[in-house]
Amino acid sequence: MTWAFNDLKANKGIWAGVLLVLTVTQTILCATGVSMGVNDYYLGVPGKTGEAAKHLGSGLALVYAVAVVLGCLVIMLTLQASIRQRRQGLALLSLLGATPRQVLAFTVTQVFALTMMASVIGLALSPLLAPPILQFHSAVLGLPPVLTFTWHNFTRSALTGLAAGLITALLGAFLTLRDLRTMIPVQLLNRAGAEESMTKAKSSKGKLLFLSAMIVLLLPLAGNVYLSQHGLAAMSSEQIMTVISLTGNGSLLAIILILVALTRSGGSAIGWSTRVWTRLIPARSPAWKIARSQAITRSRGKAFGSSVISLTACLFLVGGLLAAGQTSTAGMRSLPQLRGLSSASPMELLAGFWAALLITLVGAVASFAISAKERNLDLALVSIAGADRRQLLAISALDGFILMTTGVLVAAVATLVVGAATAIAFLPLSGSFHMVFPGQFLLALGVPIITIGSFATLFSARSTLQKPAIATIQAAIGE
Question: CB burial class (10 A; 0-12, 13-18, 19+) of residue 22?
């Protein structure tokens, strides 16, 4: 166990990113759990207060459930990125005689210790965050702000939220390290060999999950065919909505399945995406060629993939739901009984998924920071090869540009797939293929994200270039 805590000290920069994700996840789950406890307390109160509590209950439960699922996913991605940066240490530990079970125990101990620290922070902040959460959800639903914070049920609600966060963190650690139990120590020292071996094992599972998501998205097709063949003109709007609502939450499940599929086989999918879209750029400058080559190589790795998938999850979660909701609404509006139907706005979706969006955004930032060591090493090697300072800064800015653009494009393509599948599912009602793509939403968020990512790698390179290249290489290899 001494090695586990020494590793926390030796790799403070890497573990700081993991701690950031754990802290945000624990704080959100604990604060949301406390908010649910306050809401449960007011359920038995008669009048407007009890009615408001009934309306808020389902919304808070949705926020909590999606935050648990996305929290587990982001923790797993962040741990994958951290393990990639520490693979030499893990390999040497195995060569010294540590069994896979011991390596798993060491890392779980580290995650448990960091989760306990995050739990203390979450427990302290939850009484401060619960009232704004209740007020925010009340405002979105148009309810009066009658639910005030109370300490009733606080202990039970807070401990439930902390327990959910702890289980989420440990589950993410276990799922990450389960893949390493079959790895040979020498493979861990070999970057390409380790990544290729692990990616091949996950590719088939990712394809199966993606196929499952497509099936879920097309489930409304059966209900819509039934409606089109059983006298729609004689049905009331309530009867039609009863049939359609049987698969009403399928789009959310499909989006989560696609995100998990990206996590399982993200190396090959993201590597292919990076290679294809960068090939379409007709730039011939040496800086672009080097940045593109480095990005394609790193796109197969966990650090690059973790940043891209977390960023994709942040955009795709809302973009996919907007595409599915607006496309299905357009299909249902073709019926005379449902002409006045409206779909959820971006603000209403944010009310249900703000916690998951915050977790995925922090996960993208943490994975990006964890991979800084690898980017600095590549920059130092290019510097020794003869590149001047201006070229190195250009390569760094393009590195961030490629990474962020890949995440935005993957989210856009995934959103397009969800919208197209939803349009096919509602063909029996609309009679024509009509898909709504939230391009303005993705553009409004994608451009600032790409700009910030480019400047972030640029400023990171400026600080790295202040040190001699040989010092950066020595620090990277542990000398």
Answer: buried
> Any residues with CB less than 8 A from the CB of 201 and at least 6 apart, and which?
179, 182
The helix (run of H) or strand (run of E) holding residue 262 is: helix 250-279
Say whether pLDDT at 202 is over 90. Answer: no
Radius of gyration of the chain (CA): 24
Tell how far CA 92 is from the center of its chain: 31
Helices and strands: H and E segment counts in the chain = 19, 0
Place of tokens 């879209």: 277
pLDDT of residue 237: 67
User: Quick check: 157 and 36 in contact, CB under 8 A?
Assistant: yes
* pTM: predicted TM-score of the whole model, two decimal places: 0.78
Q: Quick check: 90 and 183 in contact, CB under 8 A?
A: no
Residue identified by tokens 């009331």 is 236
Cα→Cα distances 137→39, 116, 341, Å = 11, 29, 23
CB 364 within 8 Å of CB 307? yes
Residue 412: pLDDT above 90? yes
Q: Which helix (H) or strand (E) holds 439?
A: helix 439-464
Q: State the DSSP string of 281-296.
A: -----HHHHHHHHHHH
Please say whether the dihedral angle defined by the alpha carbons of residues 414, 420, 426 and 428, taken in this order, is positive or negative: negative
